[in-house]
Design a protein that fits this description.
Blueprint: H1 5-17, H2 22-35, H3 43-47, H4 50-54, E1 59-68, E2 74-85, E3 91-97, H5 103-119, E4 126-131, H6 140-154, E5 163-167, H7 173-187, H8 211-228, E6 236-240, H9 244-255, E7 259-264, E8 268-271, H10 278-287, H11 293-298, E9 303-306, E10 318-321, H12 330-338, E11 343-345, H13 354-362, E12 366-368, H14 370-373, H15 376-390, H16 396-420, H17 427-445
Parallel strand pairs: 3-4, 3-5, 6-7, 6-10, 10-11, 11-12
Antiparallel strand pairs: 1-2, 2-4, 7-8, 8-9
Helix pairs in contact: 1-2, 2-5, 2-17, 5-17, 6-7, 8-9, 8-15, 8-16, 12-13, 15-16, 16-17
Length: about 450
């Protein structure tokens, strides 16, 4: 519950103006609750109307996306780009293609991205975009036509020094390739830094595909070692989701000595007590694009359980939710706590509901918010932009080493901020405060804009 009068007033204004956007309100409230620990030390924020400006996007673009399916029928989706804050660099954030996409989801993601990008220490502002289009079940031709139509509007709002999108849920290498091809076709320039997550043949970075999942494990390793003197070695781990982030989180966790016993998709989860066979999983999800239930059909001893939220009932030491927002509710958190879990590291954006966050923190579990532990993807996107500007390509090992260094730096920034605000080890408060302070200083220095 907010007690600071300034933050209460600003949140009330957001609630009145954007009351129909629950995900955005949830994200704002979480950050404000952390900032209550430091707001009294900064009277200049209220004098400059800083919080009122911080919660309002600099620009919101909403547009129709008409395209023609393989049957010759015209279809129409809705596209978005929210350019939230450019105080420390050009807007940076992914594009999400999923039926659940709406303005509230994109605003929440853009708001979170501002703080996440700040934590990387790279010069990137925050933005996000996407469409309520579902690539699943669509042919390559349909996806290409949709992406070309989407970029035909989006191109006028982006640029390597303005706004640099990347991929997110539903936007992988295929989609980025089609999007970039259309951008290049329209502007008539090979402007590599305008999109990240590109293919290696046209300016992409090695380790970008693995970056979010690997980065999550690097952050978790730092936190486990520093706060508990522990590691992944011998730990039982749950990884929700089975997309890009989940796949490579599971791979790196396994390499670090953990045993991933359950993964999920939107329909249910698989349990394999011996540890998930990652080669089989990657074949099912990357090559065949099948449901995760196929894993249980093809791997002896594995079990499939309908209902993806029930994955948290599986006993574990460490939980890494990597699917989507609000995927773990209070019941899921209670199951984790009752089974004796020691840590929850968010690999998705805001995957725990407020009630779940409160429960795991109150129970004393080590907890990190996605804006910190999920930042590896955008960090390597920033490194991809650097390589494009330098006309260079770094080796996998070089990028991976830089990623590990950035994630360690993010952990230390969160921990140090938690100490300074009187909450040692509270990584949620630390992430929000550390990320915000850098943005606030830049906003104040640039005047009322």
């Amino acid at each position: 519950m907010l007690t600071n009068e300034y933050l209460k007033r600003v949140y009330g204004q957001v609630e009145q103006r954007d009351g129909q956007e629950p995900e955005f309100l949830q994200a704002v409230r979480e950050v404000f609750e952390s900032l209550e620990l430091v707001v009294d030390q900064h009277p200049e924020w209220e004098q400059a109307g800083l919080m009122e400006r911080f919660v309002e996007p600099e620009r919101v673009v909403e547009f129709r996306v008409p395209w023609v399916d393989d049957a010759g029928r015209t279809r129409v989706n809705r596209g978005y780009r929210v350019q939230f804050n450019s105080a420390i660099g050009p807007y940076k954030g992914g594009l999400r293609f999923h039926p659940s996409v709406n303005l509230s989801v994109i605003k929440f993601l853009g708001f979170e991205q501002v703080l996440k990008n700040s934590l990387t220490t790279l010069p990137m502002g925050g933005g996000k975009g996407g469409a309520d289009f579902d690539p699943k079940g669509k042919s390559d031709g349909e996806v290409m036509r949709f992406c070309q139509s989407f970029m035909t509007e989006l191109y006028r709002h982006i640029g390597q020094f303005t706004d640099t999108p990347a991929g997110d849920i539903g936007v992988g290498a295929r989609e980025v390739g089609y999007l970039y091809g259309q951008y290049k076709r329209i502007v008539g320039r090979f402007e590599g830094g305008v999109l990240t997550g590109k293919g290696l043949d046209f300016g992409g970075s090695l380790a970008r595909t693995q970056a979010t999942g690997y980065g999550l494990c690097y952050f978790a390793s730092e936190a486990l070692a520093h706060l508990h003197g522990e590691s992944f070695q011998g730990k039982t781990v749950l990884v929700s989701g089975s997309g890009n982030v989940a796949q490579y989180a599971a791979e790196k966790c396994t390499a670090l000595g953990g045993r991933v016993v359950a993964m999920s998709d939107s329909q249910g989860y698989v349990y394999d007590a011996r540890g998930i066979d990652l080669e089989k999983l990657l074949d099912i999800k990357q090559r065949r694009r099948e449901r995760i239930s196929v894993y249980a059909q093809e791997v002896p001893g594995a079990e499939y359980h309908p209902g993806c939220r029930d994955i948290w009932t599986v006993p574990c030491d460490i939980a890494m939710p990597c699917a989507s927002q609000n995927e773990m509710d209070e019941a899921g958190a209670k199951a984790l706590v009752s089974q004796g879990a020691m840590a929850v590291f968010e690999g998705a954006n805001m995957p725990l509901t407020p009630e779940a966050v409160e429960l795991v923190r109150r129970a004393g579990l080590l907890y990190s918010p996605g804006k910190a532990s999920n930042a590896g993807g955008v960090a390597v996107s920033g490194l991809e932009m650097s390589q494009n500007s330098l006309r260079l390509s770094w080796s996998f090992q070089e990028v991976d080493e830089k990623l590990r260094g950035i994630m360690g730096q993010i952990y230390r920034a969160c921990y140090n901020a938690s100490v300074k605000c009187g909450r040692p080890g509270d990584l949620m408060a630390g992430a929000n405060i550390a990320g915000f302070l850098k943005v606030a200083k830049a906003m104040l220095a640039q005047g009322v804009v």
